[in-house]
Amino acid sequence: MYNQLMIEKFYITTAIDYVNGAPHIGHAYEKIYTDILFRHFKKRAKETFFLTGTDEHGIKIQKTAKNMGITPKELCDINSAQFKDAWKLLDIEYSKFIRTTDEDHKKIVQDIFEKLLKQGDIYKHSYTGLYCSGCETFLNPKDLDENGNCPIHGKKPEEVSEENYFFKLTKYKDKIIEHIKNNPGFILPEFRANEVLNQLENIEDISVSRMKSSVEWGIEVKSDPSQVIYVWIDALSNYITALGYDVNGNHSENFKKFWPVNFHIIGKDILKFHSIYWIAILMALGVELPKEIYAHGWITIDQNKMSKSTGNVIAPKTVMEAYELQCPDSLRYFMATAAANGKDGNYSDIDFKEKVNADLANNMGNLLNRTLNMLVKYFDGEIKEEFIADNDLNKKAEDITTEVQKYFDKCDIASAANAIIGLVDEANKYVNDTAPWSLAKNEQMAECGKVLYNVLNLMVKIALLIEPYCPNIAKAMADQLKFDINIKYSEIQPNMVKSGKLISKEEIAPVFLRLDSDFATNKKTV
Questions:
Q1: Cα–Cα separations (whole angstroms), residue 466 to 19, 405, 425
Q2: What are phi and psi of 482, to 5 degrees?
Q3: How far is residue 159's CA from residue 161's CA, in Å, rounded to a whole number?
Q4: SS3 for 457-506, per residue?
Q5: CB distance 23 to 83 below 8 Å
Q6: C or N: which end of the chain has fewer Cβ atoms within 10 Å?
Q7: Residues marked as catalytic
């Protein structure tokens, strides 16, 4: 059954973060989300690629750098490094970190622009519109709130008159509608598809350049140096420039191997740009479309939207330091389960502590610890051959693995986590029902040994399933259960724990201590 989970290749991307500020827990949510998906599919795919990075052009960066007395590139270097440091802290296992100031990206973006210009998909046009510097985009009057403000930034956009280049988005409107309707899983969660279809009704051509006199910090249009290429072609193209796309078809091996992307993971606020603008650009280039675009919700803080003005913006490093966490597993797990599929979620200190203590310490960690201690107490840590036999828990593990795989195929990592913890609940119930301590007391040692084996064997499967969420905890479990945590799902056997000496008393240690434990800041704690 586990062989059926295997696929040939897997390519996943996050949105690239704008470097006008430092990373916060909202940025971290998306990166953790994507990393969990990536780690799961690493166990199913022969070859994998995970792309993240930073968006580094535009007027906001230009203005901020000027106010700080440094160049825009210096500001980008400083802030891009902060994002890299944050993802290292959270064990984000990306394959490549792209910056839109990378020279190879800039060259390919210029080539893309020229190709679209030459074939008539881009044209020059004088335009007067309402420009929001916060969004770095032109807004239609219908996009504004009742006070005439940008609904995201709460400020009135400024009226701007320029001669810019425009992309013929309307040319691809019908094709995009047809593709969305013919491919129900193209936009996930599926309830988001109707939002996009509604947005397509009144879609207009979009500006894809700015006059250099208005915005200096950007990639020059090769054939018209008075203009810089705007975000839609610059930032969105990172998904193919990172792989080595070539406008003349001389693509790199990475592009040939990994495109089309399996999942674009983005926030719900930029779904329009990815499911309409980006898709139209790919259609114009004649490039195969993404398989799925997944839009996650936002993370609030104590039920309030994060805002610099209210001072409730939290950095992932702040949470790590507050709890003196030696690894990010508890934060990763909580963030992954903080929101239902595609909905908004919430972070609070109380919820964080209660959730990870209940699931990771009291439930999963305690189950492994007490089972191993019974194995040492009753059998000196040895698995006897007579203990190994097929059992109902093996079938339950197969069923849950299939269920988890289906959730991951739809990017629903919260439901997948609930299914995994449900398997832990099954194991705890099995221990309580069979009462191995009573079997030992009644000298039914063979039966006691079988119960302990069945639980430990199931814990191997649980560790493999939870590893994408909690890589350090899973590794600690694997070390005690003596198996390789990096194996593929296709390598899972019914009976993973082998006969012989498994563990000694000295080797047993909690894989996760409660956050309120006196020992929870011990250096050995994960």
A1: 32, 12, 14
A2: 60, 55
A3: 7
A4: HHHHHHHHHHCCCCHHHHHHHHHHHCCCCCCCHHHCCCCCCCCEECCCHH
A5: yes
A6: N
A7: 24, 27, 132, 135, 150, 153, 305, 308
